[in-house]
Amino acid sequence: MKRILGIGSRINHPEHGKGVVTNVSPTQYWVTFIDNGLETIDVDTDFEVIESADDDVDTVSFYEVENSLREILKKWSDVSEVVPLADKYKGGTMILQPKDVSLSNKEIPINTFFHKIVMLRDRLRVMEQKINSSKTMDDQDKVDLQQYITRCYGSLTTFNVLFKSSAQHFKGDSSKK
Q1: Are the C-beta atoms of 14 and 47 separated by less than 8 Å?
Q2: Which has the higher per-residue pLDDT, 138 or 154?
Q3: CB of 33 closer than 8 Å to CB of 16
Q4: What's the gap between Cα 45 and its chain centre?
Q5: What pLDDT was estimated at residue 2?
Q6: Which one of 30, 33, 116, 157 is CB 3.0 to 4.6 Å from 19, fit for a cystine?
Q7: What Rg value do the Cα atoms of the chain yield, rounded?
Q8: Per-residue pLDDT, 177
Q9: Would you say 105 and 99 are in contact if contact means Cβ atoms under 8 Å apart?
Q10: Burial of 114 by CB count in 10 Å (0-12 exposed, 13-18 middle, 19+ buried)?
């Protein structure tokens, strides 16, 4: 494996000329060249090393670590992501009116109801992940439970109207038998 150069290393590239390494990833160098400005070049590119900086190189950027952590937390925790309510329903009220006029209506702020729908969706996702990662269930049991969860999502598609972004919608089984 070729040694990774540290930030501050000086190189002479056959195409771009002389430059200084200003950032490093596991696969690329960001090099500021005297004549060509900033370029990215692959780590395994042929070039002459004029002076090697011996600093320890963090080959994973903060952005990559932050993204990975965000994805892990989203996947394995039951912390809800921020899901926006459709603008037309913000501040609105949902009224449940019984058929019997002697009974009173129940009013629920749509924001509260929407939050409960999002929490339900997140908990279904966590359940899916726990089923899929289970070491004690056989594959057929996993498939059977996954199908029930998919049907639950399908039953909840009525509430998609509340979501601001269609990417957040519930999606059930779309195959018709």
Answers
A1: yes
A2: 138
A3: yes
A4: 32
A5: 63
A6: 33
A7: 27
A8: 44
A9: no
A10: buried
Mean pLDDT, to the nearest integer, of 84-95? Answer: 88
Residues 6 or more apart from 115 whose CB is under 8 A from it? none
Q: What gap in Å lies between CA 98 and CA 69, rounded to an integer?
A: 47
Query: How confident is the prediction for the chain on average, in pLDDT?
Result: 82
Model pTM? 0.48
Q: How many residues does the chain have?
A: 177
For the residues of the chain, what is the DSSP string, one character each? -PPPPPTT-EEEETTTEEEEEEEE-SSEEEEEETTTEEEEEETT---EEEE--------S-HHHHHHHHHHHHHHHS-PPPP-PBPGGGTT-EEEE--SSTTSPPEEEEHHHHHHHHHHHHHHHHHHHHHHHT-SSS-HHHHHHHHHHHHHHHHHTGGGGGGBSSGGG---------
